[in-house]
Amino acid sequence: MLELRAITAGYDRRTPVVRDFSLTVTPGEAVGLLGPSGCGKSTLARVTALLHRPDSGTLLLDGEPVRHWRHRAPREQRTAFGVVFQQPRLSADPRLRLTDLIAEPLRATGRSAEVPDRVAELAATVGLTPDLLARRPHEVSDGQLQRVCLARALVLRPRWLICDEMTAMLDASTSAALVAVVEDYRRTTGASLLAVGHDRTLLQRWCNRTVHWDGRRKDVSAR
Ligand code: ADP
Prior knowledge:
The chain is of the alpha/beta class and about 220 residues long. The chain has a domain at about 90-155. It has helices at about 40-50, 75-80, 90, 100-110, 115-125, 140-155, 170-190, 200-205; strands spanning about 1-10, 20-25, 30-35, 55-60, 65, 80-85, 160-165, 190-195, 210, 220. Strands 6-7-8-3-9-10 form a 6-stranded mixed beta sheet, with helices on both faces. It has a 4-stranded antiparallel beta sheet with strand order 2-1-4-5. Helix 5 crosses helix 6 and helix 6 (about 140-155) packs parallel to helix 7. The longest helix is centred in the C-terminal third of the chain and has 18 residues, at about 170-190. The model has no long low-confidence stretch (mean pLDDT about 95). The structure holds adenosine-5'-diphosphate.
Protein backbone atom coordinates (compact mmCIF):
# COMPACT_ATOMS: atom_id res chain seq x y z
CA MET A 1 0.00 0.00 0.00
CA LEU A 2 1.25 3.43 -0.98
CA GLU A 3 -0.26 6.44 0.77
CA LEU A 4 0.41 10.12 0.20
CA ARG A 5 -1.09 12.19 2.99
CA ALA A 6 -1.35 15.98 2.74
CA ILE A 7 1.82 16.29 0.70
CA THR A 8 3.12 19.81 0.11
CA ALA A 9 6.21 19.99 -2.09
CA GLY A 10 8.15 22.25 -4.42
CA TYR A 11 11.47 23.91 -4.99
CA ASP A 12 11.07 26.98 -2.80
CA ARG A 13 9.34 26.63 0.55
CA ARG A 14 7.52 29.96 0.18
CA THR A 15 5.78 28.92 -3.04
CA PRO A 16 5.16 25.15 -3.14
CA VAL A 17 3.98 23.73 -6.46
CA VAL A 18 1.91 20.99 -4.78
CA ARG A 19 -0.23 21.75 -1.73
CA ASP A 20 -1.96 19.28 0.53
CA PHE A 21 -2.19 16.38 -1.92
CA SER A 22 -3.50 13.00 -0.76
CA LEU A 23 -3.73 9.73 -2.68
CA THR A 24 -3.75 6.01 -1.89
CA VAL A 25 -2.60 3.29 -4.28
CA THR A 26 -3.64 -0.18 -3.14
CA PRO A 27 -1.61 -3.32 -3.95
CA GLY A 28 -1.95 -4.26 -7.61
CA GLU A 29 -3.86 -1.10 -8.47
CA ALA A 30 -3.09 1.13 -11.46
CA VAL A 31 -3.83 4.79 -10.76
CA GLY A 32 -3.60 7.51 -13.40
CA LEU A 33 -2.71 11.04 -12.30
CA LEU A 34 -4.08 13.45 -14.86
CA GLY A 35 -3.59 17.19 -15.01
CA PRO A 36 -2.41 20.10 -17.14
CA SER A 37 1.26 20.76 -17.78
CA GLY A 38 2.99 22.53 -14.89
CA CYS A 39 0.46 21.58 -12.19
CA GLY A 40 3.03 19.55 -10.26
CA LYS A 41 2.46 15.96 -11.45
CA SER A 42 6.16 15.23 -11.98
CA THR A 43 6.99 16.72 -8.61
CA LEU A 44 4.45 14.37 -7.01
CA ALA A 45 5.83 11.42 -8.98
CA ARG A 46 9.33 12.24 -7.74
CA VAL A 47 8.14 12.58 -4.14
CA THR A 48 6.40 9.21 -4.42
CA ALA A 49 9.50 7.51 -5.88
CA LEU A 50 11.60 8.88 -2.98
CA LEU A 51 13.49 11.20 -5.33
CA HIS A 52 12.28 14.53 -3.92
CA ARG A 53 11.70 15.34 -0.29
CA PRO A 54 8.34 17.03 0.37
CA ASP A 55 8.12 20.16 2.53
CA SER A 56 5.39 18.58 4.63
CA GLY A 57 2.97 15.67 4.71
CA THR A 58 3.56 11.95 4.97
CA LEU A 59 4.35 9.18 2.53
CA LEU A 60 3.57 5.72 3.88
CA LEU A 61 4.85 2.49 2.32
CA ASP A 62 2.87 -0.45 3.69
CA GLY A 63 1.93 1.70 6.67
CA GLU A 64 5.54 2.75 7.44
CA PRO A 65 6.21 6.49 7.18
CA VAL A 66 9.11 7.35 4.89
CA ARG A 67 11.76 9.33 6.76
CA HIS A 68 14.49 9.73 4.15
CA TRP A 69 14.57 10.52 0.47
CA ARG A 70 17.12 10.08 -2.36
CA HIS A 71 20.42 8.47 -1.38
CA ARG A 72 19.47 8.59 2.31
CA ALA A 73 16.44 6.36 1.80
CA PRO A 74 17.00 2.73 2.83
CA ARG A 75 17.99 0.55 -0.12
CA GLU A 76 15.01 -1.79 0.25
CA GLN A 77 12.66 1.18 -0.07
CA ARG A 78 14.50 2.78 -3.00
CA THR A 79 14.71 -0.45 -4.95
CA ALA A 80 11.01 -1.16 -4.46
CA PHE A 81 10.31 1.59 -7.03
CA GLY A 82 10.83 1.46 -10.76
CA VAL A 83 10.60 4.85 -12.43
CA VAL A 84 10.35 5.83 -16.09
CA PHE A 85 10.46 9.51 -17.07
CA GLN A 86 9.27 11.33 -20.16
CA GLN A 87 12.64 12.09 -21.73
CA PRO A 88 14.89 9.04 -21.97
CA ARG A 89 17.92 11.13 -22.97
CA LEU A 90 17.83 13.00 -19.68
CA SER A 91 17.74 9.80 -17.63
CA ALA A 92 20.32 7.68 -19.53
CA ASP A 93 24.06 8.19 -19.10
CA PRO A 94 25.22 8.89 -22.69
CA ARG A 95 28.56 7.14 -22.10
CA LEU A 96 27.11 3.74 -21.27
CA ARG A 97 26.17 0.99 -23.71
CA LEU A 98 22.51 0.00 -23.59
CA THR A 99 23.35 -3.31 -21.97
CA ASP A 100 25.15 -1.50 -19.13
CA LEU A 101 22.30 0.99 -18.70
CA ILE A 102 19.89 -1.90 -18.10
CA ALA A 103 22.39 -3.66 -15.81
CA GLU A 104 23.25 -0.56 -13.74
CA PRO A 105 20.75 -1.15 -10.86
CA LEU A 106 21.87 -4.79 -10.53
CA ARG A 107 25.54 -3.81 -10.31
CA ALA A 108 24.76 -0.98 -7.87
CA THR A 109 23.08 -3.47 -5.54
CA GLY A 110 25.82 -6.13 -5.70
CA ARG A 111 23.91 -8.49 -8.00
CA SER A 112 26.34 -8.51 -10.97
CA ALA A 113 26.06 -12.29 -11.31
CA GLU A 114 22.47 -11.88 -12.51
CA VAL A 115 23.39 -9.37 -15.24
CA PRO A 116 23.77 -11.60 -18.36
CA ASP A 117 20.53 -13.54 -17.89
CA ARG A 118 18.44 -10.67 -16.66
CA VAL A 119 19.57 -8.21 -19.37
CA ALA A 120 18.90 -10.77 -22.13
CA GLU A 121 15.47 -11.56 -20.69
CA LEU A 122 14.45 -7.92 -20.31
CA ALA A 123 15.81 -6.88 -23.71
CA ALA A 124 13.52 -9.50 -25.27
CA THR A 125 10.61 -8.37 -23.08
CA VAL A 126 10.86 -4.72 -24.15
CA GLY A 127 11.62 -5.55 -27.80
CA LEU A 128 15.33 -4.70 -28.10
CA THR A 129 17.33 -6.90 -30.47
CA PRO A 130 20.78 -8.09 -29.26
CA ASP A 131 22.65 -5.97 -31.86
CA LEU A 132 21.22 -2.79 -30.29
CA LEU A 133 22.52 -3.62 -26.83
CA ALA A 134 26.14 -2.80 -27.71
CA ARG A 135 25.21 0.71 -28.87
CA ARG A 136 25.28 3.93 -26.90
CA PRO A 137 22.26 6.24 -26.48
CA HIS A 138 23.20 8.57 -29.39
CA GLU A 139 23.13 5.56 -31.74
CA VAL A 140 19.47 4.68 -31.08
CA SER A 141 16.08 6.38 -31.41
CA ASP A 142 14.09 7.93 -28.56
CA GLY A 143 11.70 4.98 -28.70
CA GLN A 144 14.52 2.44 -28.45
CA LEU A 145 16.08 4.37 -25.58
CA GLN A 146 12.76 4.52 -23.75
CA ARG A 147 12.56 0.71 -24.09
CA VAL A 148 15.96 0.62 -22.35
CA CYS A 149 14.70 2.91 -19.58
CA LEU A 150 11.69 0.67 -19.01
CA ALA A 151 13.90 -2.45 -18.90
CA ARG A 152 16.13 -0.71 -16.35
CA ALA A 153 13.09 0.27 -14.27
CA LEU A 154 11.99 -3.39 -14.16
CA VAL A 155 15.38 -4.99 -13.59
CA LEU A 156 15.12 -5.15 -9.77
CA ARG A 157 11.49 -6.37 -9.95
CA PRO A 158 9.94 -3.32 -8.24
CA ARG A 159 6.65 -3.51 -6.38
CA TRP A 160 5.68 0.00 -7.43
CA LEU A 161 6.05 1.45 -10.90
CA ILE A 162 5.98 5.18 -11.50
CA CYS A 163 5.57 6.13 -15.16
CA ASP A 164 5.88 9.89 -15.58
CA GLU A 165 4.62 10.74 -19.09
CA MET A 166 6.43 7.59 -20.23
CA THR A 167 4.89 7.62 -23.71
CA ALA A 168 4.59 11.38 -24.33
CA MET A 169 7.49 11.47 -26.82
CA LEU A 170 6.76 8.17 -28.55
CA ASP A 171 4.80 7.10 -31.62
CA ALA A 172 1.55 5.20 -31.16
CA SER A 173 2.94 1.71 -31.76
CA THR A 174 5.92 2.14 -29.40
CA SER A 175 3.59 3.65 -26.77
CA ALA A 176 1.24 0.67 -27.04
CA ALA A 177 4.16 -1.76 -26.83
CA LEU A 178 5.56 -0.18 -23.67
CA VAL A 179 2.17 0.01 -21.96
CA ALA A 180 1.71 -3.70 -22.79
CA VAL A 181 5.09 -4.51 -21.20
CA VAL A 182 4.09 -2.68 -18.01
CA GLU A 183 0.74 -4.47 -17.92
CA ASP A 184 2.34 -7.91 -18.47
CA TYR A 185 4.77 -7.17 -15.67
CA ARG A 186 1.94 -6.11 -13.35
CA ARG A 187 -0.12 -9.18 -14.21
CA THR A 188 2.71 -11.54 -13.34
CA THR A 189 4.02 -9.73 -10.26
CA GLY A 190 1.02 -7.88 -8.78
CA ALA A 191 2.96 -4.60 -8.83
CA SER A 192 1.08 -1.31 -8.50
CA LEU A 193 1.33 1.59 -10.93
CA LEU A 194 1.14 5.35 -10.70
CA ALA A 195 0.96 6.65 -14.28
CA VAL A 196 1.32 10.41 -14.64
CA GLY A 197 0.13 12.15 -17.76
CA HIS A 198 -2.05 14.66 -19.56
CA ASP A 199 -3.57 12.20 -22.07
CA ARG A 200 -6.96 11.40 -20.58
CA THR A 201 -7.84 8.72 -23.14
CA LEU A 202 -4.59 6.82 -22.57
CA LEU A 203 -4.77 6.98 -18.78
CA GLN A 204 -8.42 6.00 -18.63
CA ARG A 205 -7.77 3.00 -20.89
CA TRP A 206 -4.62 2.02 -19.02
CA CYS A 207 -5.55 2.51 -15.37
CA ASN A 208 -8.18 1.18 -12.96
CA ARG A 209 -8.82 4.69 -11.72
CA THR A 210 -7.87 8.20 -12.82
CA VAL A 211 -7.35 11.10 -10.47
CA HIS A 212 -7.76 14.61 -11.83
CA TRP A 213 -5.45 17.17 -10.32
CA ASP A 214 -5.20 20.79 -11.27
CA GLY A 215 -2.59 21.73 -8.67
CA ARG A 216 -5.00 23.73 -6.52
CA ARG A 217 -7.86 21.59 -5.30
CA LYS A 218 -7.29 20.01 -1.95
CA ASP A 219 -9.39 16.93 -2.61
CA VAL A 220 -8.81 15.11 -5.83
CA SER A 221 -11.68 13.32 -7.47
CA ALA A 222 -11.54 9.82 -8.85
CA ARG A 223 -13.51 9.10 -12.00
P1 ADP B 1 3.95 18.77 -14.42
O1 ADP B 1 4.61 17.44 -14.33
O2 ADP B 1 2.51 18.75 -14.00
O3 ADP B 1 4.14 19.42 -15.75
P2 ADP B 1 6.09 19.73 -12.68
O4 ADP B 1 6.03 19.02 -11.39
O5 ADP B 1 7.12 19.30 -13.68
O6 ADP B 1 4.63 19.74 -13.34
O7 ADP B 1 6.34 21.29 -12.40
C1 ADP B 1 5.52 22.05 -11.53
C2 ADP B 1 6.15 23.42 -11.36
O8 ADP B 1 7.40 23.26 -10.69
C3 ADP B 1 6.42 24.15 -12.66
O9 ADP B 1 6.11 25.51 -12.47
C4 ADP B 1 7.90 23.96 -12.86
O10 ADP B 1 8.46 25.06 -13.55
C5 ADP B 1 8.44 23.88 -11.44
N1 ADP B 1 9.65 23.04 -11.35
C6 ADP B 1 9.75 21.76 -11.77
N2 ADP B 1 11.00 21.27 -11.50
C7 ADP B 1 11.68 22.30 -10.93
C8 ADP B 1 13.01 22.44 -10.42
N3 ADP B 1 13.89 21.42 -10.45
N4 ADP B 1 13.37 23.63 -9.88
C9 ADP B 1 12.49 24.65 -9.81
N5 ADP B 1 11.22 24.57 -10.27
C10 ADP B 1 10.81 23.43 -10.83
